[in-house]
Specification:
Number of helices: 12
Strand content: under 5%
Structural class: mainly alpha
Helix content: over 70%
Radius of gyration: 20 Å
Number of strands: 0
Order of helices and strands: HHHHHHHHHHHH
């Protein structure tokens, strides 16, 4: 397994796609901080506190970043027939599936550290600071990241399964978005429609524990570690369910 993962990292780190994506995201972060500086230069008062708070608000973007990371690692393998070659070469399918998922996971964590660290460092170096408020907002950032991390991993498992089981990358991406993003408003709509029926609590419960809803809620209840624990349970369920579905389906999938 380790040899397979090392080979996957070699491939992904030698793709221009990986480095271009990283540079573009860092450039966009720099542009956002430049916007804060522009506001400060024209009578505004953007602080490290407000910059860090913006990071908490934008955490749900990480779910869509999961699709980009998985696509980097999967690398159009159905289109290029490399997945077929790996299977024909005799590499066990579970090693292929788990190897690519673990590579995506580690790459995601590396990107998270670099992107988050770069953004916070820029805010710290360029914006107004207040030691007391800054200490508090960093605690909030830590809480939000701790809550979001397991949910991101669960969505990564969902996206990975879609890429393995659906030949079209576009269709796989649409399916993944449908599961982790579209399902949430659909459940909310169903709850509104069936509000006077026994089904309402079910829809309300499912909607409350959708990853996107939980991440968006985390900032408003920062410090509630019981809620963070629930996020880890939900993330573990998503990880287990989609990994099992992906492994079982990929084991029996005909690869052309």
């Amino acid at each position: 397994m380790m040899n397979y993962i090392r080979a996957e990292f070699y491939k992904v780190f030698h793709r221009k796609y990986t480095w271009i994506t990283l540079v573009v995201v860092l450039a966009l972060e720099a542009l956002l901080v430049s916007g804060y500086l522009f506001i400060n230069g024209h009578g505004g008062f953007e602080t490290f506190y407000s910059g860090a708070a913006m990071l908490c608000v934008m955490l749900s973007i990480g779910f869509y970043a999961a699709m980009i990371i998985c696509d980097m690692v999967f690398a159009s393998q159905y289109k290029s027939s490399t997945l077929k070659n790996e299977v024909a070469f005799g590499i066990p399918r579970h090693r292929i599936y788990l190897g690519k998922f673990l590579t995506s996971l580690v790459l995601s964590l590396l990107f998270l550290v670099v992107m988050t660290g770069f953004y916070l460092a820029l805010c710290w170096l360029t914006l107004y600071r207040d030691p007391e408020r800054d200490t508090y907002i960093m605690q909030v950032v830590g809480y939000c990241l701790a809550t979001a991390l397991p949910l991101w991993i669960g969505v990564l498992a969902c996206t990975n399964a879609c890429l393995f089981l659906i030949r079209s990358e576009l269709a796989a991406s649409i399916a993944a978005v449908g599961v982790f993003a579209v399902t949430s408003p659909v459940l909310e709509l169903c709850g509104a429609i069936f509000i006077a029926t026994p089904a309402y609590p079910v829809f309300q419960f499912l909607h409350r524990y959708m990853p996107t809803v939980m991440v968006d809620t985390a900032y408003t209840i920062a410090g509630d570690w019981a809620y963070c624990g629930q996020a880890w349970i939900v993330g573990a369920i998503w990880l287990a369910v989609f990994t099992v579905i992906g492994l079982l389906a990929f084991r029996n999938k005909e690869i052309k």
